[in-house]
């Protein structure tokens, strides 16, 4: 710890010089709005050089986080002006922003409400708004746009994948291995302009339709496709998920001709999935999506079981799921008494993610007991319940129960005495997969 503090002090001393603005210096206020936070930097230009005067950062309040992008940028400007008022009042300064829409501040016609009050407050300052591209707006954006270090897991994961694939291509890069009549070869030749060879790794250009950004996908040799499919679908943390989620896991890092068709065939012929897949049930109508506006606004809880008693004495699973993010939590329990369920929710869910505003469950005796209701009252949780004999009223968590039980059946031993050891792995697989209702991973 002392060495870390010394290193931090030394780094601070070698950093940007903190200057005092003089009478002949010009001031520049730089601001940024990223991921619910406001960041501002006050710069003093002296003798053709710029020196940092001070930094300022704060979190947006809950109502402010609901603003549109332009209003958030303007809110960041107002917070910066309020914090640096003693520097900026009476001085001529420049507001540098990477949001071009703020250039109309002095020319906006007929402002109303909050915007009018903000513009009226701005009139007391002598300022100019200058737009600067985000790539050079590092003074205010540096905290939110730190580059990944080479030893960072997020950085090295793709690097290791490139290295592994490069070795694959060296193994298969023989003239005899290239089959001119192969449909995959013909397709890649037709897409020649989208291909690139970098450090011995073949890549294909792909443009994301939702963002318009260009990405490079690693083209995997056909001889390695089976291994990738086995790892992504049958791996110990993969969960034997369906076709759509398996494709989503594979698509962004790697690519090969006929990827989707191969995934469909692999999932269709998977013996583990076929043995545990139940008959398709036709429902009268699809479940309706409950509208939740924020994480932990509403949470559903349910008990699954009983299952065969494990070596650790567990027979039930308590499942909790957030309506907004679809984040699941589950834990193996020896019984489903009210005290046991309440202890699991408090120690494993509420203390980690916060107390939900509303907790929804069925009319099981563990959820309707005096102990559980008193726990909800002390924590300020509004307790709701389903109608009698109507599990569809709690359909989200009931559906996840079916998914979790199916996943456990595919991985546990034949005697089924180790199913509780696989619960964390199945949770990891579900959280890492894109949810069909939201379009994002939990």
Automatic annotation (TrEMBL):
Protein name, entry field: RNA-directed DNA polymerase
The keyword Transferase belongs to this UniProt entry's keyword annotation: yes
Annotated EC: 2.7.7.49
GO biological process terms, semicolon-separated: DNA integration
Signal peptide: none
PANTHER family to which the protein is assigned, alphabetical: PROTEIN CBG26694, PROTEIN NYNRIN-LIKE
InterPro entries: DNA/RNA_pol_sf, Integrase_cat-core, Integrase_H2C2, Retrovirus_Pol_polyprotein, RNaseH-like_sf, RNaseH_sf, RT_RNaseH
Gene Ontology CC terms: DNA polymerase complex
Domain of life: Eukaryota
Keywords: Endonuclease, Hydrolase, Nuclease, Nucleotidyltransferase, RNA-directed DNA polymerase, Transferase
CDD domains assigned: RNase_HI_RT_Ty3
Species of origin: Penaeus vannamei (Whiteleg shrimp)
